[in-house]
Specification:
4-stranded mixed sheet, Clc chloride channel, CBS-domain
């Protein structure tokens, strides 16, 4: 299948879902969804040591994306549809409605918590989980008896287990990255076939001796929870699963890493608890294995997939047991902290950025779509000082300027530093004691200058302002970073965002009212302005909104009007009246 349809094979997993939600105009075609319905089933059915959640999320998102396009939903609603489909699929696969909701929020929607979105995700996940329980039953995935979490001081041990899980997760991610860089150049033609055959052969040989390595791995986890697995076997399973899962995925296999994360966590928890019990005579560390196995599962799931909230809820729902929630939270927080310190990002966002995608929240992507720095920049002179200018000259220069930011340059004309009002305020209060000093501009400036290019998109600039406490950025020429064309003010970007947000909310609300009141065709919005619904006149058919000099509100400016389209138009009363005569 990979050889026949390489383009479809390349679009796999949760990454495709995130692209469909964050990238403007991006969607999941039906043929991609069908391909990834069949290929992962073959991979897992033949013993591939991977999980079903990645393909399931893609299938759910793909079906929802297709429905969104069929219903001709706006980009905003289609993206919510897509995210809800992914969350619903996770809810159905794991029988965890809340886990599915928070998976979609933490991964697919990049933590974009909004009331309307949350409601849609919740409804979709509950519906999917209800169908799953009807068809597959409502038995928890992991059968456990009463769990003894131990005394309060055992929380320190759970924290230590979480830290170990975090370290193991970092090693797992680095190993996956290393394999990706090594194998990707060779995944073409007969070489890919050879690599996949070798990977499958290794998995098969390992599975012949350790059957729990094959497939999803839930049976192996349940054996650990029942106390049927000795620590030597658990160690072998941990090492082999750690090595084979990335090998299977990076060589071209289809599947996810949720189930392998749970498997690795279970083995790690068993080994950790066994180690504590071996030390019991000397240190009094007698512990219950089950609790550490479950905490290890949650900690690994959260760390590898960057889903702390979803991991807690998934473990709780998969066991139907609330008694170990405190140790679970402690372990998840510890493991997630280690991964965050090492990676600064979740694995999916990091892979997309390495592939050249600029990730943005769906809200910013929709509201600032199509706007660039060139649209808002101020083409005015930017104040620049020599970096070796003495302090008195700096004070005089800044006092005579109306600007709040000043930039330094070196002898080669390169920008080297930024002076803001915060730095000036501190210097001015102590100026009398400093004016005789040998301080120069470079000594009081913030090192480096954050610049933006004229063609940079505003959603990117908005995030840039969020991470830098500056009121403006100098705008440089695209091909000459030494040529300053003007400046971009923080307040101008925020005003543009707020204006677009208000416009979108008003448009959605008014258009929704017009749709629900079928008898109303003309609404007065403000004095001198009206909103009207009208079947597209013949003169409009075949033309885009851009060609008609109309403003694009819910559709895109390139949308070409078709016969029978109902247009919702806003404008001055006299223009609306002229239109109604057409």
């Amino acid at each position: 299948m990979i050889m026949l349809w390489p383009n479809l094979a390349a679009r796999k997993g949760v990454l495709e879902v995130i692209k469909a939600v964050t990238a403007s105009g991006y969607y999941i075609p039906l043929r991609v969804t069908l391909f990834h319905l069949i290929a992962p089933a073959i991979c897992m059915g033949s013993g591939g040591t991977v999980g079903p959640e990645g393909p399931a999320a893609q299938i759910g998102a793909g079906v929802a994306s297709r429905f969104g396009r069929a219903l001709r939903l706006s980009d905003v609603r289609r993206r919510i549809f897509t995210a809800a489909g992914a969350g619903a699929a996770i809810a159905a696969v794991f029988n965890t409605p809340l886990g599915g909701v928070f998976f979609a929020l933490e991964i697919v929607l990049l933590n974009d918590f909004q009331t309307g979105t949350f409601s849609a995700l919740l409804l979709a996940s509950v519906a999917a989980s209800a169908v799953s329980r009807t068809l597959l039953g409502n038995e928890p995935a992991f059968a456990i008896t009463d769990i003894a979490i131990g005394p309060v001081w055992h929380l320190a041990l759970y924290t230590l287990l979480g830290l170990c899980a975090g370290v193991l997760a970092v090693l797992f991610l680095r190993y996956s990255d290393w394999l990706h860089s090594r194998l990707r150049p060779h995944l073409k033609g007969w070489r890919q076939t050879a690599i996949m055959t070798a990977a499958g052969l290794l998995v098969g040989i390992a599975g012949f001796f350790l059957l729990d390595l094959l497939g999803i791995g839930y049976d192996g986890i349940n054996r650990v929870l029942r106390g049927e697995t000795v620590w030597q076997v658990a160690l072998a399973l941990l090492v082999l699963k750690f090595l084979l899962v990335p090998l299977m995925l990076e060589s071209g296999g289809f599947g996810g890493v949720f189930a392998p994360s749970l498997f690795l966590g279970a083995m790690l928890g068993l080994l950790f608890a066994t180690g504590c019990n071996l030390l019991a005579p000397a240190f009094g560390l007698r512990v219950e294995v089950d609790a550490f196995v479950l905490v290890g599962m949650g900690a690994m799931l959260a760390a590898i997939n960057s889903i702390p909230l979803a991991a807690i809820l998934i473990l709780f729902e998969m066991t139907n047991d609330y008694s170990f929630i405190l140790p679970l939270i402690v372990g998840v927080v510890a493991s997630s902290t280690i991964v965050h310190l090492a990676w600064k990002d979740n694995i999916y966002a990091r892979k997309l950025r390495k592939a050249g995608y600029r990730l943005q929240s769906p809200r910013a992507a929709d509201l600032l779509q199509g706007l660039t720095v060139r649209d808002l920049m101020r083409r005015e002179k930017v104040d620049i000082l020599e970096e070796d200018a003495p302090l008195p000259q700096v004070i005089r220069f800044c006092a005579n300027s109306p600007r709040a930011s000043f930039y330094l340059k070196n002898k080669r004309g390169e920008l080297t530093g930024t002076i803001t009002m915060n730095e000036l305020r501190q210097i001015i209060t102590e100026y009398e004691s400093l004016k005789q000093s040998r301080l120069i501009a470079r000594d009081i400036a913030l090192p480096g200058v954050v610049t933006v290019a004229e063609n940079d998109e505003l959603d990117y600039v908005l995030r840039l302002f969020g991470s830098h406490p500056l009121e403006e950025f100098p705008v440089v020429a695209l091909h000459n970073p030494r040529e300053i064309r003007g400046s971009l003010q923080r307040r101008d970007v925020i005003n543009a965002f707020n204006k677009a947000s208000l416009q979108q909310n008003l448009t959605a609300g008014l258009a929704g009212s017009l749709r629900t009141l079928a008898t109303v065709k003309h609404v007065s919005v403000a004095k001198g302005y009206s909103l009207v619904e009208k079947i597209a006149p013949a003169a409009f058919v075949g033309k885009s909104l851009e060609e008609l000099n109309g403003a694009a509100l819910m559709p895109t400016a390139g949308y070409r009007i078709r016969a029978g389209d109902a247009l919702v138009l806003f404008g001055e009363d006299e223009n609306i009246a002229a239109l109604e005569q057409m």
